[in-house]
Design a protein that fits this description.
Strand 5, helix 8 and strand 6 form a beta-alpha-beta unit. It contains eight helices and six strands, in the order αααβαβααβαββαβ.
């Protein structure tokens, strides 16, 4: 069978089957409902009908949902959302960085806090040395909060627990960007 003929048969079969969508099926020993009755029972949802909130629980956030890799895109998103950017500087050879990766950065509670209050970027120091230099990072792990206009709001050097990390994010997010005249450095 030629490709063109196979395509035509497939399209015709799909169109024929689409015409039967919504029709009731007949179980053994049951009478089939009439077409008008079946169509009346299945009312299409229109835009005038209010939508109900989903009763299904939303899926938990994942690290891929929250952590970005591109600082320029994160700044644009942060500007649009009027939120700070959280830059988390780490290195593959850094033991405290790896510990934070496993026990802090990807926990559900921390991901929720980040998602609600800022736009987050993980920066691998070996792959993006220009950002390490731009922000003057000298120790790992290091977290730098940048306001949506580009000013540095806070710098934290060193590992934190999940509770400390969440508190840090909440405190920075509550601070108005214009209130920080200088850089706040924590964890020295």
């Amino acid at each position: 069978m030629s490709t063109a003929r196979l395509l035509k048969v497939t399209v015709l079969t799909s169109a024929s089957l689409a015409g039967f969508a919504g029709w009731p099926t007949q179980a053994a020993g049951q009478q089939t409902a009439s077409v008008p009755a079946a169509r009346a029972a299945v009312k299409p949802k229109t835009s005038a009908q209010p939508s109900r909130p989903s009763t299904q629980p939303s899926r938990p956030l994942t690290a891929k949902d929250v952590w970005k890799e591109d600082y320029a895109q994160a700044r644009q998103q942060a500007r649009a959302l009027n939120r700070p950017v959280l830059l988390h500087f780490h290195a593959t050879w850094c033991g405290p960085c790896q510990q934070m990766e496993q026990s802090v950065l990807n926990t559900n509670e921390v991901l929720k806090e980040i998602n609600a209050r800022c736009v987050a970027v993980k920066v691998d120091s070996d792959r993006q040395p220009n950002l390490v230099q731009q922000f003057g990072v000298g120790a790992f792990p290091c977290d730098v909060f940048v306001g949506h206009t580009g000013q540095i709001l806070m710098v934290n050097q060193g590992a934190l627990s999940a509770d400390e990390y969440r508190a840090m994010i909440a405190n920075v997010a509550r601070t108005p960007a214009t209130a920080s005249a200088g850089v706040k450095i924590a964890g020295n």
